[in-house]
Amino acid sequence: MRERHEFHVDSARYLDDHGKPLGDLPPQARDIDRTLAAYRHMVLIRTFDSKTIALQRTGKCGTYPSVLGHEVVGTAVGQSMARTDVLVPYYRDQAAHILRGVSLKEMLLYWGGDERGSAWENCREDLPIAVPIATQCCHAVGVASAFRIRGEDRAVVCCVGDGGTSKGDFLESINLAGAWHLPVVFVVINNQWAISTPRSIQCGAETIAQKAIGAGLPGHIVDGNDYFSVTEAIDQALERAHGGKGASVIEAITYRLGDHTTADDATRYRDAEELKRAWEKDGVKRLQNYLHDSGLWDADQEKQLQADCRETVDTAVEEYLAMEPEPPTAMMDYLFETLPAALHAQRDRLADKHRARSGQGGVA
Amino acid sequence: MNASAQKAVDKQNASEVKEVTLVEAVNMALAWEMEHDENVVVLGEDIATNGGVFRATVGLKERFGFKRVMDTPLAENLIAGTAIGMATQGLRPVAEFQFMGFIYAGMEQIVSHAARIRNRTRGRLHCPLVYRAPFGGGIHAPEHHSESTEALFAHVPGLRVVIPSSPQRAYGLLLAAIRNPDPVVFLEPKRIYRAVTQSVADNGEALPLDTCYTLREGDDVTLISWGASILETLQAADKLAEQGISTEVIDVATISPLDRETLLCSVAKTGRAVIVHEACRNGGVGAEIAASIAEAAFLDLQAPIVRVTGYDTIMPYYRNEQAYLPHVEDIVEAVEQVIAL
After folding, report:
1. Is A269 designated active site?
2. pLDDT tens digits for A25-50?
3. Mean pLDDT, range B236-253, rounded to an integer
């Protein structure tokens, strides 16, 4: 006797490449304020992104990973989450961070080589940016376990790239989320490229979302440039998590429109024609078209928004550039809650050297 | 339980002095802290229903429930990282790695996250967790079950590495490790898990971290060790005493951050230092101790510093493990060598 086990992965898309509805829109589309706020935020993030790249090119910021092409997913994540939920990000989640309460200045500080960039005054519990690929997935299930242990109605959203889904951290974490029934949503932002490695080499599976099935979780695919399909999927997955129904995996398909980071040159490995086609699917322009076609947006509003975003970003940049670096002794001051006696002499030496090098005015 | 009832139970426990092995002391400390701090949770492979392969966590699931005593899937990297997520939420997870030989899968999480979360967030988040692992050879275990790689962890800024060498110190240091607001790698010398018993008062009293423990005072030579090697070091000290050689025996206990002051004061008194550890010599913690003594107490030394260690080779399978491990006579010979100078 043979038995057959069948599984499925669903996939959703509501707007075509030009922002035209392909059919009925999900209920989220009825929330006009939310949709307008999403568009405004995407433009802010895009403005911030191009400014930060310019700062890096002029030596005023360190290596920076452009968020171009990720604005829609990040915005939907940031909007869908409750304040008391916890975001466990990777390093290209600028759009979500800012909605969670991280300031543009803090984001600049982080990429500008200053640890205070993760001190996040208004976003106390979210995990900091995780640079080592997919490692954050394990933290996400740990945070979700804490919620379950304490019986709190809170959920976790964990973001990871397509490359990250090849790592054990992702697979081990979705496996635990399934086994322990944890309130967590894994959002895989499939931007087709892990630096120079295309999606086709990353994994032989037809979809990334189907990895969820091996962990006993539902896997969904959404068009990551379609604000409504991403928003609906994340809203539903969070509702499921809050309702004690367990974890989900969402694969949001988009495209990395920029280089991996400012230290990368994607023209070495990526076809210009492919990039051109990806721009035709741009999610920010798509939402703008939709709003325009719906009579909710016009050229004057667009002009005003662009000016407002530039001003907001310029103000943040000024604040960032005006900040003095921390004294070098800060490198010892947050290592432990209390500096162990074994390190006192090293800290004193560091302070003395700094005083000597910076003259009378040095502060240790 | 209300406060006064709890107090009565505590008092009763405090008066209860138990004769326990090192591994039983670990279990006692875990139970005490889980009883008194609901944020303490334990997780690992086979730790709940089975009580751990060495029985370090036996009885905890029955007392505190599966929500706080968690059998994890078989994935060490996941165990290391999940504990970090829990710790950022204010829990105090104690994660068990079944053997030190399997901890390496969790290395990225330990080095790149546990040790760095406080620093990276400028204190916004911190990581009050304990990674427990039995370590060391001498129990006829299979391949990968006998290593002593504590130096790997001692090298990592932001980590504490604590190693008990008696039931009393296992109890007191583990309580301190759990209460510590920063990550602690707590390595348990499994060769002496059940070697001796000792009276331990189950009163919740922690012992200080970041300090050496002077087990025996003496004048002629300082013997410095930690973990299971303390056993042979003390036996060597007895033999040397018979020859009229007075040794000061120091258990380093916290190998990082290192209490150099106690070591240097002792060497200033004795003028001689012999360092004993089971781990390989090259880049071992003994090298750091020797360098520290040479830097700060060179003029106090009457003889070169000598290390008695494992060889710089892969831990042999058990038929040859005794040939690898430092023995009492190796320590005695080393002391005789430095005394002769």
Report:
1. yes
2. 999 999 999 999 999 999 999 999 99
3. 98
Instruction: Give the Cα separation of B49 and B69 in Å (integer).
Output: 9
Mean pLDDT of B92-120: 98
Q: Is the pLDDT at A362 greater than 50, yes or no?
A: no
| Nearest Cα residue to A241 out of A120, A359, A158 | A158
Q: Which CATH number fits domain B3-201: 3.40.50.970, 3.40.50.300, 3.30.70.20, 3.40.50.720?
A: 3.40.50.970
- From residue B81, how far is each of B105, B176, B188 by CA, in Å? 11, 22, 21
Has domain A10-322 been given CATH number 3.40.50.970? yes
- pLDDT average, residue stretch B268-272: 98
Q: Under a CB-based contact definition with an 8 Å cutoff, are residues B237 and B223 in contact? A: yes
Three-class SS of residue B300? helix
In terms of C-beta distances under 8 Å and separation of at least 24 residues, what long-range contacts does B6-11 make, across chains too? Answer: B10/B203, B10/B204
**B76-88 helix and A136-150 helix, angle to the nearest 10 degrees:** 60
CATH architecture of B213-340: 3-Layer(aba) Sandwich (3.40)
Q: Residue B145 catalytic?
A: yes
Average pLDDT, chain B: 96
Q: How far is the C-alpha of A139 from the C-alpha of B9, rounded, in Å?
A: 36
Chain B residues with CB under 8 Å of A106 CB are none
Residue A221's Cβ-side half-sphere holds a number of Cα atoms within 13 Å equal to: 16
The DSSP symbol for B318 reads G
Taking the domains of chain A in order of start, what are their residue ranges? 10-322, 327-364
* Chain B environment of A116 (Cβ under 8 Å): 122
Q: Does the distance separating the beta carbons of B88 and A125 come in below 8 Å?
A: yes
- Of the candidates B87, B89, B122, which has its C-beta nearest A116's C-beta? B122
CB contact under 8 A, A169 and B91: no
Instruction: Write the burial class of residue B337 (CB in 10 Å: 0-12 exposed, 13-18 middle, 19+ buried).
Output: middle
- The pLDDT assigned to B10 comes to 60
- pLDDT at A363 > cutoff 70: no
What pTM was estimated for this model as a whole?
A: 0.96
Q: Kindly tell me if the per-residue pLDDT of A168 is higher than 80.
A: yes
Put simply, whether A116 touches B (Cβ < 8 Å) is yes
